[in-house]
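This part of the workshop introduces the protein records we will be handling. A record pairs a protein's sequence with a compact description of its fold. Comparing a sequence with its tokens is the quickest way to learn the format. The record below serves as our worked example for the rest of this section:
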Amino acid sequence: MDLETRFLHLKEEAEKRIIINGFTDFLRTQKIELKFIRGNSYTSGGKIIGVGIGIERMPRQWLINLPDDEYTTIALLCEDSKKNVTRFILSEKFFDKIKERISRDSNKQLKFTVLQERELHSLKFPNYQPIAISNFRDFTDEL
């Protein structure tokens, strides 16, 4: 890996750490403590939450990869070009419903695509219609 590529990778990792810290700070304001387990896995109230981060590379679209693990549910954190982060915390029931639709790559990564049209957000899956997720914005009821 050349020096420039390494620098860009480290910069992106630092940006993601800032987003995670903002997410845990937000949860603390809701009296929820999120504890790190490993990789992208955290725990709260006995549940395992996968936290995926997407940085807007194309207008109103976020591509998020998350290691395939035994999550109770997931949180998708989407940072836009102005550094604003929108947080989607999927309910357990919803996550169970979409698990089979989630594509996986050869590295066993779960692949999510979040789309935004005006103020509405949805998850896009191959061979399925997009599914609305706006109602899971800052949804902390199950954490």
In short: Helices lie at 3-29, 92-98.
